[in-house]
Sequence to fold (596 residues):
Amino acid sequence: MVLSACGDQPQQPVLPPAPVTPKPHLGAAPPLVVDWYSPSGMTFGKGYSSLSGELEGTCVKGTVDAKSIGTLSANYDIKIVSSTQALASSLGITAEASVGFGLFSASAKSSYLQSQASNSYSVYVIVYSEIVGPSIVLSGAHIMKGDEDPGGQDNYADFINNYLNFYAKCGDKYLAAATTGATYRGIIRLDTASSSEKTELENELKVKYGSASGSVDVKQAVSQISSQYNVHINEFYDGVIPTKFATDYQTLLDNSQNFPALFTAQCSGQAVGSAQLVCLKSANFQDYQTLALEKANTTVLDQARSNAETLTSYAIGYQNKLNDSLTAQLNPFLFTDTQSAINALVSRNSQLLATAKGVIKQCARDARDCVAPSTVNPPLTDPSTLPSPHQIDLGKPTTCLDYKNKYMAFGDIQKNHPLQDANYRLYVGNQTARVANIWCADMNSAAPQEYISLAQPNNSRTRFGTPASASTTLWSKIKLDPATLNIFPFDFRYALVTAGNAQSPFGYASDTPGGGVKFNDDIVANSDLRGTNFQFPNSLYVWQAFMPGATGGGISRPNTQQVDMVAPHNGMTAFSVNSTSGIQEKIQLEFLNPNN
Fold:
């Protein structure tokens, strides 16, 4: 307790003694740290019920010293998860933090976890941008007695002698501290078509990007992931609000990269204290027992809290199972189960979830109604023992036709839902086969074709004729032989002439105007495989042909995935095999070295 001086001696101020912080009792529950939220009436010392998730009365008094926020730096990180439980935890929603229906609130995070966007058939890349500032602490905290409580109630006596009455008014925890700062979480969801594909994808992402940290690494990783895979974007934030909502990976990147500057603009210089709860990233709720030297009889609540955590854990499990079965219901062609079997799973999981929610609501109303799952009528089943829909497993298809045939072999559901032209994960390279994202064209035909989707701009250019005119060809895809990894520079199916009227092969630049005319500007071309699974081999030769009077020209290779070309004035450059072979009909690539 904190004792303060009283009496009429204004001429000599009496300083209160330093607050004595009691040693936490062994019976105290651990603190609860959650992402900051700002319901009406949120103040330091405010009570909180971990069963209902609601704020309660204020039964604790103390002092709060305002802290000024300066310019802070951000930590950038990437986390790769493949289970709905890990996804929920990454979003700050766990069974402990969700007791009292927290998971099933109207928050954006809760809505996301209750949707089919959260399922067991996807891999999630979570982009973190976190800013951590000074903590605001309630010092000298003590449970108010009758002379301090506005209603004259001796809260400390109730805590020791009539805990359930105390809990009804004050809850079981109080807001003891808050951390300034902000948290940005960008979610990139990658869907998979089979269990083996999911395992391969998760391992690939962890090898390539699992250690990415810092703004440059994270930016590069997100750019590559989003260019190689079909992705779905979501974002969540605490502390400050981005100026633009992310619906694509570039905006997600911009928001995460700009988060420190945004926080500085909105929060730098702010004096955060009890009167101004802004720019906060997390709240710390402490058990009242940490303020008492005597042990309160919390047996009823302890049992209720234990049961509620189990119930909430079950509810999270049922929600996950329901999401999975709804995903199967919406995409039956990706599963081997019959429609009736999937409908039965949806029905059972819905019923179990509704029952668990009902019992959790009872807990929120009265701690004595928090019962164990086994005593619910009918008893609640452990969600880990419940069946899930069965994804089709395509094994390791090596071509687009192989993928199509394996898919169609599963049955009538698949035959009635033909595959579209899109990126698919194939095992290409014959004897050195590795998984790669390959665009499959003509999937509705008997002979689908393989292409590499190019994530970066790829231009080939030429200038010729009298009078001379320049033409530019922009490449979005390049044809691939999946066995040999040869590409075909003269396949113009996904090449668009954006200037002039002449097509130029992939990896080509020429400047051969007629009549001996020379121009001051250069004809520049480039080939860029960044964002794909491939690189140019060291043996790749870029051939240069010089005609009489040729000047200039050059070739550079910034890395194994890029070739930049400047055509000589009155000459050309082109992908080749050796110095005498000239332009080639096919050029062999190799798999990207993860260390490059």
Q: What stands out?
A: Confidence is low (pLDDT under 50) at residues 1-26.
